[in-house]
């Protein structure tokens, strides 16, 4: 794996564009890791993955704890690893223990031996040796070390314990890794404590890791705390290695992360939208057009999404987004999706996830374009401003 920063915003800003060379592919960053259920997106099958933008859709986040109940790890290894099991030899699989929905960490039940997770098979204590057995059999391209993630409201003492355990487990995982940490993402934890975040980031940087995974966000922290956490962690990390963050899913949260210098985002936002019947509709072709007018205004939905379950779309024969080139928008109408959702047909989730994934990948492409052209800060400010203006008007 090779990573190079190709563009950094001027004026002391931290937002950056980069190029990640991995598994024979060159993928630009900032980029999105597609959330999966046992290796594939919840409603997008292997053949439908090919319809998504390339190479943007090559990143898949897999959760090893999903495979604790199912095919024995040796069976996956005998098949040739997860790439061969899924039939996705060209995709980049990045493994991390939690997936933000079904495998949330439970800090109260974690101890010095391992991290406790609520998994589809119930609560499980995962030791570094168990975790590395799964990793060695699955053979992902990159994997995040086992970490003790704690919510924002724990004490400073508990934050300190979290950092100590995470560093100890990182050393144990690297020692058990056949490649001696060459494909490892060291996890930065420390709850809402800026001091512990800095300490953990500094110590993880001293290890032989390929990049960094900033964990423990989205567990009760406020936007203000999140900003301080990101600045503290990123400020102690070397710039030549990629940085991944979990649980920053909303568009404005992604923009906040990019502004802090994050390169990859693990998010369940698309899954949550799809399950709720929502479709993304915000403009993604604005670099040369709307940005010149200083406006990103959209008169549809809540500026970012629409609820296709609503009766207003029952007779709407237009596409979700007129300019969208995804399979769903090219072949189906809002009225048809409204019908599928209201009769509880699973095809609704399939078509919605295709559109939402395609749209959000294009959003990340837009972010990269604004960084390259020096318009990112302006774009971010205008996007957030328009979003807040809509929410304020909706309350009134």
UniProtKB/TrEMBL annotation:
One of its GO terms (cellular component) is cytoplasm. One of its GO terms (molecular function) is metal ion binding. It comes from the Eukaryota. Zn(2+) binds at residues 324, 326, 329, 355. Keywords: Cytoplasm, Metal-binding, tRNA processing, Zinc. It is found in: Cytoplasm. Heterodimer of a catalytic subunit and an accessory subunit. NCBIfam families: tgt_general. This is Queuine tRNA-ribosyltransferase accessory subunit 2. It comes from Oryza barthii. The lineage of its organism: Eukaryota, Viridiplantae, Streptophyta, Embryophyta, Tracheophyta.
